[in-house]
Amino acid sequence: MRFLHTSDWHLGRSFHRVGLLDAQAAFIDHLVATAREQRVDAVLVAGDVYDRAVPPLPAVELYDSALHRLAALGVPVVMISGNHDSARRLGVGAGLMEQAGIHLRTDPEGIGTPVVLADAHGEVACYGLPYLEPALVRDLLGAERAGHTEVLAAAMDRVRRDLAARPAGTRSVVLAHAFVSGGAGSDSERDITVGGVAAVPASVFDGVDYAALGHLHGCQAITDRVRYSGSPLAYSFSEADHRKSVWLVDLGPRGEIAAERVDCPVPRPLARITGPLEELLADPALDAAETAWVEATLTDPVRPHEPMARLARRFPHVLALAFEPDRAPGDPSASYARRLGGRTDQQIAEDFVGHVRGGSGPDTPERDLLRQALDTVRVDDTAREVAR
């Protein structure tokens, strides 16, 4: 059986101040064409279909068009909601869409009920695990605690119980939206940390033939059977080196996996350039960046006059500008952003406590209290989106 594994469309998202709807429409054209040309048996969409809970109307229209076109090809679609989606909104009409081969899995109650597909070698059970916010689904799933690993493990227990009751030789696919250990993230994924931990082990998916993952925006294989397709477009400059693609997966008669990447169309390349302004304006090695979307980081010791306007004369698609003056590491005027770079919210909060106490950081109970407060804020934000 042949699948196209994709995720993280983020319909409605912009790249800095540039709208991406045309580029997203070009990706949908590419997806439909690939499904037709490669004669795929199903398309798997592993969450974050939209960029926010209440998407703009043009994004909804593009989503509607994509489903109509895939349904017209007779290609089943299995789709789950991600942490950016409103599961309730995305799941509206799921029962009716099922009749057209569009299988929406947005309700945790349905985790143990697969979409059953079939080929010449027998049945394939496709289980859709929508994004599981631990604090909201712990009781429903009977998880030991409200952590990502625990709720995903409880969900997979339901999958394995159903699979064990099916005929011998039934192959299995799971769609999930999570941060799996060993995956490489980027700046454009929303933080899903709970209790200081975001990642779950790949072993949670043991026992299924293929896990089609969403959430991380870089295409990557955690194991041969556990893969991220990544986002079809770049949504931050941290993805400048990504090769955007979808996975074309062949599932053999005994669960063998063969996967290859199919490149997605690139609306415009990304370039990150760093150095003193005058050098950036004169360096011939940067000629290729003249047609790219550009993030420029200036290292001049003193902020130059009108840097954005001067950069735009050579790099007309410059979108982002940062200043990181070349200074000694101990210089007290070093960039605040640089000092915070790569640090979690928990670490920043703990550093702040140490700063206001004159160097005395939080003790263990205080660290736990900070962690609980940060988790509560994030869970409250998620609950508000779910309720919209």
TrEMBL record:
A UniProt-annotated Pfam family: Metallophos
NCBIfam families: sbcd (TIGR00619)
Annotated signal peptide: none
Protein name listed in UniProt: Nuclease SbcCD subunit D
Entry similarity comment: Belongs to the SbcD family.
Nuclease SbcCD subunit D C-terminal domain sequence ranges: 267-353
Keywords: DNA recombination, DNA replication, Endonuclease, Exonuclease, Hydrolase, Nuclease
Lineage: Bacteria, Bacillati, Actinomycetota, Actinomycetes, Kitasatosporales
One Gene Ontology MF term: exonuclease activity
Role of this protein: SbcCD cleaves DNA hairpin structures. These structures can inhibit DNA replication and are intermediates in certain DNA recombination reactions. The complex acts as a 3'->5' double strand exonuclease that can open hairpins. It also has a 5' single-strand endonuclease activity.
Entry keyword Cell division: no
Domain Calcineurin-like phosphoesterase: 1-218
InterPro entries associated with the record: Calcineurin-like_PHP, DNA_Repair-Maintenance_Comp, Metallo-depent_PP-like, Mre11_N, SbcD, SbcD_C
Complexes and interactors: Heterodimer of SbcC and SbcD.
